Amino acid sequence: MASTRDIRRRIKSVKTTAQITKAMQMVAASKMRKAQQAALAGRPYAAMLHKVLAEVTASVVDFSDPIFEPREVKRRGIVLVTTDKGLCGSLNTNILREAAKFDPASTVFIAAGRKGSQFLARTKRQLAAEFSYKDIPQFSEARAIVKFATDLFLQREVDQVDVLFTNFINTLSQKPTTIRMLPVKELHATIAGVAGEERHEALVKGAVEFLFEPDPVQVMGALVPHHLNFSMYHVLLEAKASEHSARMVAMKNASENASQLIKDLTLEYNKIRQASITKEILEISSAALAMG
User: Fold this and answer.
1) I want to staple 89 with a disulfide (CB 3.0 to 4.6 A). Which of 159, 168, 250, 258 is the partner?
2) Given a cut of 60, is residue 207 above it in pLDDT?
3) How far, in Å, CA of 227 to CA of 229, rounded?
4) What is the mean pLDDT of the chain?
5) Strand partners, 163
6) Catalytic site residue from 18, 32, 56, 88
7) Are 229 and 59 spatial neighbours (Cβ–Cβ below 8 Å)?
8) 126 pLDDT tier (thresholds 50, 70, 90)
9) Is the Cβ–Cβ distance between 187 and 181 less than 8 Å?
10) E strand or H helix at 171
11) Is residue 219 annotated as part of the catalytic site, yes or no?
12) What is the pLDDT of residue 289?
C-alpha cells in the first residue's frame, strides 16, 4: 500500500499537470475561435468561385491546358495535410490511417505538417516535399504547395493529385476528407468544407447568360490557377480549425480526468490517514487497559 507521503506527491504532480492542460485548453480555445471564423468565412467565397468557374467552363469550348489532361492513373500524388504538434486527440491518427490505405509503391506524398512527414519517414513511404504552414495560414503557403504539386503533374511524375486533409464539421467533429486537385477537369465539382462537409455539385450552366471580358478563354486562364490556390488555402484553413478544435476538446478532457484523479487520490489519502489514526487510538486504548 502506498504511503501518505507518496500519495501527497502524486496529488501535487497531478495538480501541476492539470494546471498545464487547463492553460493549453484556454490557449487552444482562443486560437480555435479565430481559426473557425476564418474557415467559415472562406466558404461563401469558395461557393461563389465554384459557380463562376462553372459559368466560364460552360462558355469555353476551345480552351486547352496540360493541367486539364486526364490520364490513366499509374502514379498518384497525395498532398497530406496534418499538424505540426500533437496533443490533439485522434485527429492525426484518423487522417494517417486514411493515408496508410494508399499503395506505397505507386503513391508520392507531399506533406504539409510535421506529423505527416514523420509518419511517411517512419513507414518508409515516398516523400517528395515537406511544407509548413502557420497557425493563421497564408495564401503564399498554399500557392507554394499548389505550384510543387502542379510541377509534379506537368512533368508526368504523377498522373493524378489528391488532397487528404481534416474537414472541419463542428467543434466536436472533424472528418478526414480527400478531394481531387489535378487534373483540373476533375476538381471543378468539389468544394472543400462548404456546408460543413465535402459537397459535390454538377457544373450546369445557369439560366442567366454572362458576358466575360476580355473573353472566356482569358478569364479561364486566370481563374483556374486562382481556383487551385484558393482551394488549397481553404483546405489549410479547414485543417487549422479542426486542429485547434480537437486540441481544445482533448485538453478539456485531460483537465477533467486530472480533477477526477485528484479526488480519487485525496479519498485514498484520507482513508489511509484515518486508518492510521484509528490504529494509534486502538494501541493507546490497549496499553491503557493492560496497565489498568
Assistant:
1) 250
2) no
3) 6
4) 85
5) 79, 179
6) 88
7) no
8) very high
9) yes
10) none
11) no
12) 80
